[in-house]
Design brief:
Blueprint lengths: L1 E11 L3 H11 L3 E12 L8 E2 L4 H11 L4 E4 L5 H13 L3 E4 L4 E2 L2 E2 L5 H10 L5 E2 L3 H8 L10 H13 L4 E9 L2 E7 L4 E7 L5 E2 L1 H14 L4 H18 L7 E2 L10
Parallel strand pairs: 1-2, 1-4, 4-5, 5-8, 8-9, 12-13
Antiparallel strand pairs: 2-3, 6-7, 9-10, 10-11
Helix pairs in contact: 1-7, 3-4, 5-6, 7-8
Length: 261
């Protein structure tokens, strides 16, 4: 399948567009990556700099002229002109749209997150086949009125229902921690189900990008996402468990991300 990925590109660090292209390509897809922003490094590094991609709309338009696109994956977006152009595309797009909102983690917004970014993602939900926020991002998107530390399973389920009501056909909320387990909640028209996995006590940058890329791959292979989540979580767990760990910042290693049967 041919996938247009709109996400930020970090020159240093395995995350965002770099992860999307690697994981999706390993799983047999043809990927066209257009950066929505260029970062010198991911935000875990000190004193990073960033700038917008010149001629974003012209480059994206050219991709559509060259290739037939089966799906659009949307990650980081903080530019209003880019947002308006992407929305215009989505209004006429017949393929599947995957939304991975980039807003925050561990109960807090990222330092550079702006209110209008949340509004961008809320608008995109109307066109989305599946949305894959972590718990913090899901709370921000729905403006859920409860502190992050007080969230229970029933709250996550209610948040997922709100996201579905806002437009996404399928909802995957990741990174809900309970009893030293990482839990993912899946909601569709026919199904609601919890999935859990042991937590590895180290933060790995790029894990969420790999998860959403694997979800995208399975979706575009016409796999039932409910049946794919265990495979995705097992693959991520094994990769993270087996990679070398360091003091301080750790980044996802991009080998061995092909999903088995």
């Amino acid at each position: 399948m041919k996938i247009l990925v709109l996400n930020d590109y970090c020159c240093v660090g395995n995350c965002a567009l770099k992860v999307n292209i690697s994981v999706l390509t390993q799983n047999g897809h043809e990927v066209f990556g257009v950066p929505t922003k260029i970062f010198s490094s991911n935000m875990s590094y000190k004193d990073y700099i960033s700038f917008d991609l010149p001629n974003f709309s012209e480059i994206t338009k050219k991709v559509f002229e060259i290739k037939d696109v089966d799906a659009i994956y949307i990650g980081f977006i903080d530019n209003k002109k880019y947002f308006e152009y992407i929305k215009e595309i989505l209004q006429n797009f017949k393929g599947k749209v995957i939304l991975d909102p980039i807003l925050g983690d561990n109960g807090a917004k990222y330092s550079g997150t702006k209110v209008e970014q949340i509004e961008f993602y809320r608008e995109f939900l109307k066109y989305t086949e599946v949305v894959t926020p972590n718990l913090t991002e899901a709370i921000l998107l729905t403006d859920y009125d409860k502190n992050f530390s007080e969230i229970k399973r029933e709250d996550v389920e209610e948040i997922a229902k709100k996201l579905k009501k806002m437009g996404s056909k399928q909802v995957l909320i990741k990174s809900f921690e309970e009893n030293n387990k990482l839990n993912t909640f899946y909601l569709s028209e026919k199904t609601s189900k919890w999935f859990e996995k042991d937590k590895i006590e180290v933060k790995i940058s790029g894990t969420g990008d790999a998860f959403s890329s694997l979800v995208t791959s399975e979706l575009l292979k016409d796999e039932n996402l409910e049946k794919s989540i265990d495979k995705i979580q097992d693959l991520l767990y094994e990769n993270i468990k087996n990679q070398e760990k360091f003091e301080g910042l750790n980044e996802i290693k991009l080998e061995n991300f092909k999903i088995g049967l």
